[in-house]
Structures are given as structure tokens and as C-alpha cells.
């Protein structure tokens, strides 16, 4: 009898061993060479965006093929556009005033945990930011998305071969088990965790540095000065995008009583169906499992499919199922995260009450993630920006598209940090810079040898050891006199050349 756990562990060890062999050579390549590699990966994955999107939807049963194609293009083309000119190799900066030189140091081998909700796009995105930062990455796929993730890695490896670099820089477990994933998290250098709360918690408990995400429970506040038609349209487009599988998607609408009727009517006109009575109870019965977690049978499904699963009839053209809600907490399933075509609806008297309610919703397993506000009152927007326990506030934009950087200027990302309040090590939309350690070369502030000078001849490239030690005037007056002409950039290049030998 074959022990899959042992096989998975052995495979992980082999993949990490190969990655550790390939990564140091890649880390020594020039910025130009690294950029050529990520360009090739971007182009190869973008060319297969539709195929991979279809594969992901068919294998997982989640979302829509066309929207998954859009996410794949975001991960390949827009991520590349944002990182193309980013400096990630060698000297990142030189400050002549503070006399500090910053040098990029890749972390090494990254463990890439990939969810079933966004499998191919997350794989593309994590591969690009890992390679851009000089790292290798080994993916552990969600078992229900194993085939589409493996195909994505295969395409990326083909691009790496075309650039004459090792395909071992990006690899994937073919026998995914919990034990194999645990082994990967133990022996890698950094974990990049995207997935359910249990997996993210395991990453932070592994003993290896980790960057993870938190749960999203995004409230969308429609304030009385908002353009209601526009706000509803954006919320509908966001919540139905890939059937709500992105954790930044709106989970509840909060609006003021003076405009509630109009908001409700606009929602209904755009395909929202308000559940009541027996229909509401039947939907509630299929929303969660016995332990209160989301029922995977309805995750990433459209409204019509959820209605069929619940055994109810809804009008043709229904896009969202909505419930009027009064409370917040475990007894109120519509107050929780719902990665599907379900939405809670709350009515408050004014923005002060909305502020309190949004905070309560966020603390109901969504703290640190995302909040959306639709308003033309800058003072209220500012108050929300100053006080809400989130890492990103979306203003007059779809929360899904805004948070991942599709409709906003945020970095395009499928790893959305939630900060300390959300149990994350970062509040960033994770970028290549999160995957780089910074080595700082700091000169004595009282030494003249680090000041930018005009010396560009042979003397300016003298070994820094004798020059830098001479600036304090302790019996070395002659070297100190000449040190003032040393060019800090030339000296730094010499230092970095020595540092590279031990990287």
C-alpha cells in the first residue's frame, strides 16, 4: 500500500532541494536578465489566460470562466506592468546625507499556498513577484485545484526554459497532502499564504516567517450624498464578479433610512432578489456547515444555482440573493463572509450609526481587510478613513476590483494583508519588495570618506578598508585628507561586489 503522505513529503524535499540549487545562481543575475525572465513569464501566462480560466472554473466549480480569465490577465499583464521598472537587484538606494546604502537580498525559497477560489491567477501572481525579487517558489496547491495549478506552473516553467534559466525556480507539488504542505512550510525560507483561516493560521504557526491574509467581511456603506445608481451598479458588478470568490467582495450593504427605499429599488432593478419567510430560511439552511463555516457547495455559485440547492424559486435574471438583516454575529449568517452571490442589507439612521455598524461587521471576522464607501461627502469619507479597522478603504469603486488593483491605483495583488488587527504580518497588497530583505551598509557619520565627491580617477576606487577607517583622525591624517574625494557610489560598488561573494 502506497503512503501518500510519505510520498508528498519526499516530493517536497526534492522540489525544495532543486529550488535551493537554482535560486542562488538566479539571484546573481543582473536586473536586466531578471526583467527579461519575468517578461517572458508574463507573456506566456497572458497568452493562456482564457484556457487557464476555463480549466480553473471546470475543475473547482467556482466562479465564471470569463472572470477567471480577467483575473489571470490582471495577474500576468498588470502585475508585470507594475513591477517592470521596479529596482530589485543589487543596490536599491544610496543616501549621501545619512551615508546608508541599501542592498537587496532575496529571501531564498518561498512556499506558495494557493486557494481553490483563485488558483491560476494566484499562481501567476506569486510566481512573478517571487522571480522579480530573485527568489524561487514551490507551490502547494489546493487538492480541488491541483490540475489547473499544475498546468499554470508547466506554462511558467516553459517560459523559464526559453530564457535559459532553471525551471526549478517555479515548481509545484503533484501529491498535495496536509503532511506534505506542513513539511514545505517547515523547510522553506518564507511562506506566502493565501487560503482559508485554518491554512493561514498553520502558516503562522509553522516556525517559518510567513506573509498571510485574513478573512474578508467587507461592508459597503451607501451614504445619502452618493450617486445611488452608480453605487449599486458598482456593488453588483463587484459582488457578481467571479461569483464573489475574491475575499474583498462586498458582504453587506449599509445605507441610511432616508435613501433606503431608493437603494432597495435600484438593487431590485439590477437583479437583486430580497429573500423573505420560508425562502430565506431555506437559503440560511444551506449557507453554513454544522461548525458555522461556509458551505463549500454554495461558494462561488451564482444566485440561480444557490436557489436550486436551497430548493426555492427565484425570478429569471436574479443575480444576487439579499436578506434584510438586523444583527451581527454567529446567529446572523448574512452578517458573515459569504464568498458567493449572497448579500446582507442593513438600514441605519445616519452615518454615525453606519460607522458603528460597519465596525461591528468588520470585527465579525473581517477586521483588517477592506471596507467600501460610496459618498460625495469628503468629511465623512475622511472619518471612515481615519477610524475604520481595515487596511484598505474603497471609495466610490467596486470593492473587489478596487482592492486587487483593477479599478484603483493599489498594487495588483491576490495576497491582501490585513495587518496586526487582522492577524497578518503586513497590511500591504503584497509586492516583490515584501519578498526582499534589505541589507544596509551604514558609514560612520563623522567620516569624510563616505561623502560624495568629485574623484572619479584611480584613487576614487581605492579599497575602502584603509580609507573608511581613516576619517576620525586617529593617527591617519594623510589617508583622511584624500578620503574627502572618494565617490560614495564607487565605494559602494566595491562593497557590494564583496557582499555578492557571500550571498
TrEMBL record:
One of its GO terms (molecular function) is oxidoreductase activity, acting on the aldehyde or oxo group of donors, NAD or NADP as acceptor. It comes from the Bacteria. CDD domains: ALDH_F20_ACDH. InterPro entries: Acetaldehyde_DH_acetylating, Ald_DH/histidinol_DH, Ald_DH_C, Ald_DH_N, Aldehyde_DH_dom. Residues 10-281 form the Aldehyde dehydrogenase domain. The keyword Oxidoreductase applies. It holds the Pfam family Aldedh. Keywords: Oxidoreductase. PANTHER family: ALDEHYDE DEHYDROGENASE-RELATED. This is Acetaldehyde dehydrogenase (Acetylating).
Amino acid at each position: 500500500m502506497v503512503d501518500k503522505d510519505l510520498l508528498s513529503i519526499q516530493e517536497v524535499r526534492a522540489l525544495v532541494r532543486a529550488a535551493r540549487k537554482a535560486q542562488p545562481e538566479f539571484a546573481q543575475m543582473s536586473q536586466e536578465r531578471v526583467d527579461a525572465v519575468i517578461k517572458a513569464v508574463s507573456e506566456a501566462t497572458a497568452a493562456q489566460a482564457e484556457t487557464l480560466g476555463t480549466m480553473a472554473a471546470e475543475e473547482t466549480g467556482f466562479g465564471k470562466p470569463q472572470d477567471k480569465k480577467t483575473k489571470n490577465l490582471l495577474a500576468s499583464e498588470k502585475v508585470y506592468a507594475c513591477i517592470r521598472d521596479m529596482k530589485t537587484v543589487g543596490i536599491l538606494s544610496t543616501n549621501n546625507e545619512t551615508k546608508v546604502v541599501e542592498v537587496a537580498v532575496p529571501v531564498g525559497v518561498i512556499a506558495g499556498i494557493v486557494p481553490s477560489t483563485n488558483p491560476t491567477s494566484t499562481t501567476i501572481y506569486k510566481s512573478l513577484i517571487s522571480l522579480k525579487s530573485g527568489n524561487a517558489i514551490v507551490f502547494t496547491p489546493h487538492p480541488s485545484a491541483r490540475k489547473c495549478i499544475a498546468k499554470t506552473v508547466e506554462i511558467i516553467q516553459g517560459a523559464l526554459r526559453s530564457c535559459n534559466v532553471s525551471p526549478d525556480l517555479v515548481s509545484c507539488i503533484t501529491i498535495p497532502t496536509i503532511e506534505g504542505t506542513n513539511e514545505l512550510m517547515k523547510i522553506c525560507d518564507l511562506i506566502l499564504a493565501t487560503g482559508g483561516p485554518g491554512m493561514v493560521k498553520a502558516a503562522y504557526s509553522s516556525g517559518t516567517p510567513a506573509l498571510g491574509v485574513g478573512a474578508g467581511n467587507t461592508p459597503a456603506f451607501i451614504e445619502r450624498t452618493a450617486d445611488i445608481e452608480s453605487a449599486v451598479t458598482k456593488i453588483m458588478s463587484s459582488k457578481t464578479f467571479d461569483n464573489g470568490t475574491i475575499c474583498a467582495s462586498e458582504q453587506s450593504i449599509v445605507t441610511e433610512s432616508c435613501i433606503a427605499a431608493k437603494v432597495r429599488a435600484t438593487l431590485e432593478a439590477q437583479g437583486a432578489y430580497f429573500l423573505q419567510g420560508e425562502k430565506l430560511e431555506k437559503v440560511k439552511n444551506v449557507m453554513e456547515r454544522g461548525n458555522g463555516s461556509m458551505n463549500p457547495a454554495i461558494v462561488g455559485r451564482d444566485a440561480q444555482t444557490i436557489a436550486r440547492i436551497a430548493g426555492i424559486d427565484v425570478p429569471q435574471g436574479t443575480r444576487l440573493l439579499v436578506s434584510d438583516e438586523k444583527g451581527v454575529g454567529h446567529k446572523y449568517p448574512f452578517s458573515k463572509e459569504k464568498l458567493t452571490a449572497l448579500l446582507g442589507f442593513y438600514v441605519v439612521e445616519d452615518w454615525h450609526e453606519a460607522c458603528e455598524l460597519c465596525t461591528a461587521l468588520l470585527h465579525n471576522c473581517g477586521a483588517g481587510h477592506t471596507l467600501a464607501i460610496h459618498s460625495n461627502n469628503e468629511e465623512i469619507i475622511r472619518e471612515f478613513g481615519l477610524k475604520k479597522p481595515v487596511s484598505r478603504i474603497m471609495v466610490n469603486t467596486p470593492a473587489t476590483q478596487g482592492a486587487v488593483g483593477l479599478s484603483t491605483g493599489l498594487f495588483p495583488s491576490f495576497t491582501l494583508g490585513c495587518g496586526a488587527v487582522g492577524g497578518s504580518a503586513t497590511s500591504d497588497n503584497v509586492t516583490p519588495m515584501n519578498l526582499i530583505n534589505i541589507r544596509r551598509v551604514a558609514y560612520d557619520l563623522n567620516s569624510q570618506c563616505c561623502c560624495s565627491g568629485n574623484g572619479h580617477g584611480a584613487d576614487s576606487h581605492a579599497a575602502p578598508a584603509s580609507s573608511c577607517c581613516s576619517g576620525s583622525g586617529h593617527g591617519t591624517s594623510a589617508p583622511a585628507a584624500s578620503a574627502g574625494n572618494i565617490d560614495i557610489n564607487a565605494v559602494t560598488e566595491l562593497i557590494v561586489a564583496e557582499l555578492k561573494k557571500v550571498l
